[in-house]
Structures are given as C-alpha cells and as structure tokens.
Design a protein that fits this description.
- The structure is a single chain.
- The chain has about 300 residues and is mostly helical.
- The chain has one domain: Orthogonal Bundle (P1 Nuclease).
- The chain is about 60% helix and about 5% strand.
- A two-stranded antiparallel ribbon has the order 1-2.
- α2 packs across α14 and α6 packs antiparallel against α7.
- The longest helix has about 40 residues.
- The protein is globular and about 65 Å long.
- The protein binds 2-acetamido-2-deoxy-beta-D-glucopyranose (3 copies).
- The site of one 2-acetamido-2-deoxy-beta-D-glucopyranose has 4 residues, from loops.
Length: about 300
C-alpha cells in the first residue's frame, strides 16, 4: 500500500512513543525460540498456554497493545530508559540518574523477572510477567529506547524515502521494514525469513558465531539490574555512533533511507535483533532452570 506524504505527515504529528516495531519484537522472539533449551520451551509453552512454534512470538507485542489502555497506563515508562547524556560527544546510561520514579525498562525487567521466579504467584500473574520480559528485553536493544534526547527521537523530524517521519519511528520500524523489502509485508512471514537468517548467522559458521558467547557474558539472573544495564549501555552507545553521529540538530530534515546512514543503521539493527533474540533465549533458560531446580528440590 502506498502511503501518501500527507498521511505520513499526519502520522508523524500524532503523539508517539511507540516501541521496537512488531517486526523487531516478533523476530527477536523467533530467534529466541530457535536457541532455548527443550526444557525451557516446554515450561513456557505451558505457562503461555500455547504449544505451537509461535508460543513466544505470539505474545511479543502484547505489552504494546495494553500500554495506551486505562488499565495498562502504569506500564508506559517500562519500555525505555531515558539516558541524560549528550550525543554524539557523550553517550552513557546511569541507573540512578536515568530510571524514573515510575520505573524504566531496567527496573521493569527486574520486577517481572522476579515475578516469573515467584512460585507463590498465581499462574496468570506469572504468564503476564513472561509477556513483559519477552517484550522489554526486545525494547532495550533498540538504541532510541535508551535515550532522552527529544523523547527518544520522537521529536526529531526526518525524511524516509521522501516522507516526513520521526526518528524514533525510523529506528523502531522503518529500517527493519526496508531491510525486509518494504512496508505492506505481513509481519509473520517477514519475521520468519529474518529470524531464520539471523539464526544461521549466530550458529557455528555464521558471522556472529565468534561473538555469541560474549553476548551472554556477565548475565546474572540474581542481578537483573546490572545485567540489563549492560544491555542498555551497549544499545545506548549506538546513539552516538549510528543514530545521531552528527548530533540531534544536524539530522533534522535529512533523508535517512538511502546511502551510508541506512547501511550503518541496517547493520546495527540486525546486530541488535540478533543479540536480543539470543539473550532472550538464555535469559528464559536461566529462569526455567531455576524454576525446575526449585520444583525438584520441593519433591525431595
Ligand atoms: C499460539 O500463538 C500463535 C501466534 O500468536 C497463534 O496463531 C495460535 O493461535 C496460538 N495457539 C494457541 C493454542 O493459543
Ligand atoms: C511491578 O509489577 C507490578 C505488577 O504489574 C506493578 O504493579 C508494579 O508497579 C511494578 N513495580 C515496578 C517497580 O515496576
Ligand atoms: C536472508 O538470506 C537470503 C539468502 O542469503 C537473502 O536472499 C535474503 O535477503 C535474506 N533476508 C534477510 C531479511 O536478511
């Protein structure tokens, strides 16, 4: 479908605070599905009441569907952490400085991970916690979900193939969509193709194989804050190197869908979705292992 410039202008004018677009979230979940241990898959299929291959992908965008509802309003701040740095000269995230009183993606990952591990919590609460963890672990890998400048780029207007859009939307959706052959493709087939490629690149022989172990180094189930601060810091570093390499003013009105900017952005997006998916698999493994160990201890 061809979207007119006028319609895109309208879209850009809407109050926006989206999230890693559905393509990014679904692909992240599908990559994770390919790397979890069999016991992890069994555990989460039961918890999420879905024994198809899409048991993770099917819930990956749920957190976005409730954030603008009356009930879900309290989760709005959980999708990001607003680093008060000053790209491109200084990038950096600090938990005490940047995590708001009403929470942020780092505190949310801690909160919902600990709920998942809480055997006393009723099943529907643990199911909900799983959906939040799956979503927020994806969000933290989108560089502009770790940046304060112009509300994570929502206030920066740029051009994408001649249409006016905001920079946050570009990094949530436009880059990935263009990598996959343009808007108008259904998310599931596109995400399946993308996740299959990323999975091959992470596996032995792929271009990410040599670094994959470093992606989960220092991952600590007992310290989700420190663990996810590591992810946030890494993600935020791309704000200086690839998102705003010349700073926030210089990018206003620039065409970003062509040339060097897009090339670099596509590389970063691919890497971040691969990392997010692989880390999600390992994080869910750690959770399922802990729960299964508790269950066997209880049987003794
Ligand atoms: C499992 O999830 C997929 C993807 O959302 C969905 O199409 C399917 O209907 C779900 N199956 C069950 C049993 O809920
Ligand atoms: C933790 O999760 C619960 C349940 O969704 C929520 O009510 C609470 O506000 C969360 N706390 C923090 C600090 O994020
Ligand atoms: C996936 O890999 C195939 C074969 O190398 C390639 O043609 C295609 O463009 C790739 N798709 C994505 C989304 O990376």
């Amino acid at each position: 479908m061809k979207v007119s410039t006028a319609a895109m202008g309208l879209l850009a004018a809407l109050p926006t605070a989206h999230s890693w677009g559905s393509l990014g979230h679904i692909t992240t979940a599908m990559v994770a599905t390919n790397f979890v241990q069999p016991e992890t898959a069994s555990y989460f299929k039961v918890l999420l009441r879905n024994d198809t291959e899409h048991y993770l992908a099917g819930v990956a965008t749920w957190a976005d569907s409730i954030r603008y509802t009356k009930w879900g309003r309290f989760t709005a701040a959980f999708h990001f952490i607003d680093a008060h740095d000053s790209p491109p000269t200084y990038c950096g995230v600090e938990f005490d400085r940047d995590c708001k009183e009403n929470g942020c993606v780092v505190s949310a990952l801690q909160n919902y991970t600990s709920q998942l591990l809480d055997g006393e919590l009723v099943a529907w609460r643990r199911m909900q916690a799983a959906k939040f963890v799956i979503h927020f672990l994806g969000d933290i890998h989108q560089p502009l979900h770790t940046e304060d400048v112009a509300k994570g780029g929502n206030g920066i207007h740029v051009l994408w193939n001649g249409n006016e859009v905001n920079l946050h939307h570009v990094w949530d959706s436009s880059i990935a969509e263009q990598m996959l052959g343009g808007i108008g493709r259904k998310p599931y087939p596109a995400a399946l193709e993308w996740s299959a490629n990323l999975t091959a690149e992470i596996q032995t022989g792929g271009k990410y194989a040599a670094q994959r172990e470093s992606w989960t180094k220092g991952m600590m189930l007992d310290d989700p804050i420190q663990t996810s601060m590591g992810w946030a810091t890494e993600s935020n570093s791309f704000v200086c190197s690839a998102v705003l390499p010349e700073g926030p003013s210089a990018i206003v009105g620039q065409e970003l869908a062509l040339g060097e900017y897009f090339q670099r952005a596509a590389e970063v997006t691919e890497l971040q979705v691969a990392r997010g998916g692989y880390r999600l698999a390992k994080w869910l493994d750690l959770i399922a292992e802990r729960i299964n160990a508790q269950a066997s201890a209880d049987e003794l």
